[in-house]
Write a structure and sequence with these properties.
By secondary structure, the protein is an alpha+beta fold. It has one domain. It is built from one helix and four strands, in the order ββββα. Strands 1-2-3-4 form a four-stranded antiparallel β-sheet. This is DUF397 domain-containing protein. InterPro entries: DUF397.
């Protein structure tokens, strides 16, 4: 998928300490893209609307807190 038009924004929950930083591009038609801000040219996740809602739900409930 071509992500050249993606407008990336840093998550408000990503601290300014250079730690775990997530960026999201929600301006693309029908998808939300996610990347690690420390590796902007690295891999990206591309999620559909229902996948994005499930992902955010898991983040809010702590589903991923114990993953390393």
């Amino acid at each position: 998928m071509d992500l050249s038009a993606a407008v990336w924004r840093k998550s408000s929950l990503s601290g300014g300490n250079g730690g775990q930083c997530v960026e999201v591009a929600a301006n693309l038609p029908g998808v939300v893209a996610v990347r690690d801000s420390k590796v902007p040219d690295g891999p990206k996740l591309v999620l559909g609307p229902s996948e994005w809602r499930s992902f955010i739900g898991g983040v809010k409930t702590g589903t991923f807190d114990s993953l390393s």
